[in-house]
Design a protein that fits this description.
heterodimer; A: 173 residues; alpha+beta; 7 strands; B: 313 residues; Methylamine Dehydrogenase, Chain H; 55% strand
């Protein structure tokens, strides 16, 4: 019986993972920080310390599985988010990651955060861009809280809070 | 040379020059518009407001129309290529995404994503004359050059279906890789990207035999040149194009383009390859022979242009 339930669950899960609507959503946020790009990049690159600047996160755990690096975030609101780190590019100061699963109403979420030079050596511009689909991947009607708008609002909230937190930490002398 | 001949020569050259300007029609899903882009002048000539969520496109030179699928309001916009304005909106309902013209350009075929159906629309009357059920979540669609087959990739069942263009009866169903999306055909080779496998499948349309070649990360679109020497694949998660040598069956080069390139189209007359870039709201123009990046042109928001989008006279 246990096996049957597990396989039903697996089928359900795989359906969820592999189907989505045809309209990808985008959130792009940026912030100017009065700190050098090197300093800001060092904070972002420190994968296990996200809770130091992302106020929505209480704990971060980084794990290596073969070639892949995963990061599990514990959210203050409850729930967890599992991310896979897709690339850390020191030359471009760019971190790429995807969400494997988690308590955010999105699906097929891919994002990057990049640090660029500001107008002087002690200024940085940070850009955070996410591409994802709404949580509900089948034909309408769409259940409440699983539509495009809910997905965009959730991601916008995460980026806004994170960038403010990043600015605060990086500008602390 | 007489003056009359000279005038004729100038007129001829001028007309010739006019007809060779490549124009790209770019669907912008993020701001519900179609950008009409002059590739040589490197600018948007016109931004045409479309239906909601424009994604797919096919261009019929014979009818002088571009057809746009609007995934978010279930409609097809018909754009007059001479005046660059919408002359008709066909309400089809559902979620139209993939679109292609028939070989003779007397019909267009439209895929309804969620309902897993294909619609046949007459280009003369703009009416749906037939509807059939196909595999799960039809996405890429294309017709061959001899008028025999219509090819469809069905994303959520990992298949390609081959239909008779005239009767819309199923000829063959072939298993490909995971999440087939963009599709292209040239001569007897059918190209399909497998999004979740980072690869393309190439199906021989005579023998229906298949082979798989590695591409870049999360590929969406594919085209090949007339001689089938190279295939060009957009890698959405790597901001690049893979150049695949079809003789050695290997990727020989990656060309960096804008962010999240999705659509790709080829214009051999003008030696161009163009990608539409969802992430950077732009198109990238590439020198086809040199296989080198040329320049970027800003378009509308979240440019997709899923299908054939260059108007080549």
């Amino acid at each position: 019986m246990k096996k049957i339930i597990t396989s039903i669950l697996l089928i359900f899960l795989s359906l969820n993972v592999f189907a989505h609507g045809p309209s990808p959503q985008k959130v792009e946020k940026s912030i100017l920080i009065s700190a050098s790009p090197d300093k800001v990049w060092a904070i972002i690159k420190d994968l296990g310390s996200l809770q130091k600047w992302q106020p929505l996160v209480s704990d971060t755990k980084v794990e290596k599985k073969g070639e892949d690096t995963f990061r599990t975030l514990t959210l203050k609101s409850g729930g967890k988010v599992l991310q896979r780190i897709k690339g850390i590019d020191d030359a471009a100061m760019k971190l790429k990651y995807e969400m494997v699963e988690g308590a955010v109403p999105v699906s097929d979420y891919n994002a990057y955060i990049v640090v660029a030079k500001g107008s002087n050596p002690n200024e940085s511009s940070v850009i955070w861009v996410g591409r994802f689909y709404r949580f509900y991947k089948l034909n309408p009607p769409i259940p409440a809280g699983q539509d495009d708008e809910s997905a965009v609002n959730a991601v916008s909230g995460i980026y806004d809070a994170g960038l403010q937190g990043l600015k605060k930490l990086a500008e602390t002398k | 040379m007489t003056l009359k001949n000279l005038i004729l020569l100038i007129l001829f050259l001028w007309l010739n020059a006019c007809s060779k300007i490549p124009i790209a029609y770019i669907t912008n899903q993020g701001d519900d518009s179609v950008s009409v882009v002059d590739i040589k002048m490197k600018k948007v000539m016109k931004q045409i407001p479309s239906g909601k969520g424009p994604v797919g496109i096919t261009i019929s030179l014979k009818q002088s129309y571009a057809f746009i699928t609007n995934a978010n309001d279930g409609s097809i916009n018909v754009i007059d290529l001479d005046h660059n304005k919408i002359v008709k909106t066909i309400k089809v309902g559902g979620t139209p995404v993939g679109i292609t013209k028939s070989t003779k350009e007397d019909y267009i075929y439209v895929g309804d994503w969620f309902n897993s159906e294909i619609l046949k629309i007459e280009t003369k009357s703009f009416t749906v004359i037939k509807k059939i059920s196909v595999g799960k979540f039809p996405s890429g669609m294309i017709c061959d050059t001899v008028g025999k087959y219509l090819f469809i990739s069905n994303r959520d069942e990992n298949t390609v279906e081959i239909y008779s263009q005239s009767s819309l009866s199923l000829v063959k169903k072939i298993k490909v890789g995971s999440h087939p999306y963009g599709i292209f055909v040239n001569k007897n080779l059918l190209f399909v990207v497998n999004v979740l496998d980072d690869s393309i499948s190439i199906v021989n349309t005579d023998s229906f035999l298949l082979e798989t070649i590695k591409a870049g990360e999360h590929p969406y679109g594919v085209v090949s040149d007339m001689k089938n020497q190279f295939a060009f694949v957009t890698n959405t998660q790597d901001d690049s194009i893979s150049v695949i040598d079809l003789k050695t069956k290997k990727e020989i080069k990656k060309i960096k383009v804008g962010a999240n390139p999705e659509g790709i189209d080829i214009d051999e007359k003008n030696n161009l390859l163009i990608t539409s870039n969802w992430g950077s709201d732009s198109i990238s123009v590439i020198d086809l022979i040199k296989q080198e990046y040329l320049y970027e042109i800003k378009t509308g928001k979240q440019s997709r242009s899923f299908g054939q989008f260059i108007k080549i006279d």
